[in-house]
From TrEMBL:
SUPFAM superfamilies: NAD(P)-binding Rossmann-fold domains, TrkA C-terminal domain-like
PANTHER family listed in its UniProt record: KTR SYSTEM POTASSIUM UPTAKE PROTEIN C, POTASSIUM CHANNEL PROTEIN 2-RELATED-RELATED
Domain RCK N-terminal: 2-118
GO MF annotation terms: monoatomic cation transmembrane transporter activity
GO BP term, example: potassium ion transport
InterPro entries: NAD(P)-bd_dom_sf, RCK_C, RCK_C_sf, RCK_N, Trk_Ktr_HKT_K-transport
Protein name (record): Potassium transporter Trk
Residues in RCK C-terminal domain copies: 135-219
Superkingdom of the organism of origin: Bacteria
Length: 221
């Protein structure tokens, strides 16, 4: 069963998260109080709705309690960001990620129940979207418009297999350039190396191929 996400605030950052999650095939509800912004995402997100996120009744009516992960990407209105986070915490949302404007805002968000606080000035939307999709995706770095490098944990679908067994290059078009185990890093992994629980793979490839690799081997429902 697909995890469901909601993105509240469809500015540049929230829009980037919404687009990336939608491109990865996730169910996304896009929420903003601005009708023009909502209309922009009607054909991108699974659902796009006009709502005031500081109104608890409105969020309940949208069925926000059924959403697995809510991303609060409200722009310059720190008060709305804080109030929205408080409401989501009170409603028992499983995971809440919130965009912070500054370090002070981050401290408040951490105190009121945010599970993850991000700074869009430091973290790009694509990188955050991939980390949101799975805890096994540790880092994501764009090399060009359509190629990236990703750092992933060896999840249960990979553990106990060798690189030959998984044949990541043939099946997904990606290359494993290194394997990290604790403080050690193996920059020329053998095809016969067995992947262990704490191993981290550094994989390079086109965004399309990395997406297929993540869906089949990394993301665990």
């Amino acid at each position: 069963m697909k995890r469901e996400f909601a993105v509240i605030g469809l500015g540049r950052f929230g829009g980037s998260i919404c687009r990336e999650l939608s491109m990865e095939g996730m169910e996304v509800m896009a929420i903003d109080h601005d009708e023009d912004k909502v209309n922009e995402y009607k054909n991108i997100a699974s659902h796009a709705v006009i709502a005031d996120s500081t109104d608890e009744a409105s969020l309940k009516e949208l069925g926000i309690k059924n959403i697995d992960h809510v991303i609060v990407a409200i722009g310059d209105n720190i008060q709305a960001s804080i109030l929205t986070t408080v409401i989501l915490t009170d409603l028992g949302i499983k995971k809440i990620t919130v965009k912070a404007q500054n370090d002070r805002h981050e401290k408040i968000l951490n105190k009121i129940g945010a599970d993850q606080v991000v700074h869009p000035e430091r973290d790009m939307g694509k990188r955050i979207a991939h980390s949101i999709i799975s805890n096994n995706i540790l880092d994501y770095l764009e090399l060009s418009d359509d190629h990236s490098i990703v750092e992933v944990k060896a999840g249960r679908k990979m553990r106990g297999n060798t690189l030959v067994d998984l044949d990541i290059r043939a099946n997904y078009g990606c290359n494993v350039v290194a394997i990290k185990h604790g403080k050690e890093i193996n920059v020329s992994p053998s095809a016969d190396d067995v992947l262990k629980e704490d191993d981290v793979l550094i994989v390079i490839g086109s965004d399309k191929d990395i997406s297929r690799f993540e869906k089949h081997l990394v993301i665990e429902n």
